[in-house]
C-alpha cells in the first residue's frame, strides 16, 4: 500500500510498520499520546487510536473504509470489499453504520461496567468479535482493537492480559467469530481476564518463546479449564507450570493436576482443577503441601 515512507517492498514495509506502531502504542499506554486516544469508546476513539498508531506510515491512518479516502492530496474511491484469506468483512458502504451500532450498544450497556468477571469476559468477547467482523480499517485492525479493548477492560475493572496470546490463537478465534461461532473468543477472554489462568498462560508462552523464538507465535496455546479432561505428551514440567501436546494444540496448566512422578516425555491424562491464585501457589510452596 502507498505509505509515507516511500517503501515499495511489502516485507520492508511490514517491519517498518511494526517498529513505528510499537513506539506509538507505548505512547498511548503511558498517556503521552493525544487525549483522544483515551476517549469515550465511540468510533472517534477507535479512529484516534488507529491514527496515532499508524500515522507515521499511512496518510489514511484514522480513516475507516467507510470514510472519504485521501491519498497524496487526492480523493480516491474506497475498495467496496475487504477479503483476507477466505473471510469477507463488512462492505465499505455499511462499515460506519455497523461500527456506530456496535459502539452505541456498548454505551447502552454502560461500557460493561459493574459486571462480574465472567459476565464481562463473555460480553467483551462478543464486542471484539463484532468489531473484527466490521474490520473498519484497511490495515492495523488487530492492534487498534486490542488497545481499545484493553482500555475498555481497565475502566470496567477487569484487566485483559493479551501477552500470553499467540498470533495463531488470535487468528483462529477471530476466524471462528467471523463464521458466527464466538465460543472460542469467549473462552480466550475467560482466560485473559482470570489472573491465575493468564499468569500460567504467560509462563507457557515464555517457556515456548525460549525454546522456539518468534515461532511461538505460530502455536495455538491455551490454558486448562477446570473440569475438562486432557490427554497427551508432556513437553515441559516444572514447579510452576506444565506444557502438554494435546490434539495438535499446546496446553499449559498447573502441575498440581499431573500424576506424581510424571516427567517430560510421558503420556498422561488429567482432569484439570482450578488453577491456584498466586497467593495460594506461594502458600503451597512454603508449606510443601504438594510434591510435583
TrEMBL record:
InterPro entries attached to this UniProt entry: Fido, Fido-like_dom_sf
SUPFAM superfamilies: Fic-like (SSF140931)
Keywords: ATP-binding, Nucleotide-binding, Nucleotidyltransferase, Transferase
Catalysed reactions, as listed in the record: L-threonyl-[protein] + ATP = 3-O-(5'-adenylyl)-L-threonyl-[protein] + diphosphate; L-tyrosyl-[protein] + ATP = O-(5'-adenylyl)-L-tyrosyl-[protein] + diphosphate
GO biological process, one term: regulation of cell division
Coiled coil spans: none
EC code(s) of this entry: 2.7.7.108
Domain (Fido) ranges: 41-194
Top-rank lineage group of the source organism: Bacteria
GO molecular function terms listed in the Swiss-Prot or TrEMBL record: AMPylase activity; ATP binding
Top EC group: transferase
Ranges where the record places region Disordered: 247-267
TM region positions: none
Protein name: protein adenylyltransferase
Organism: Deinococcus humi
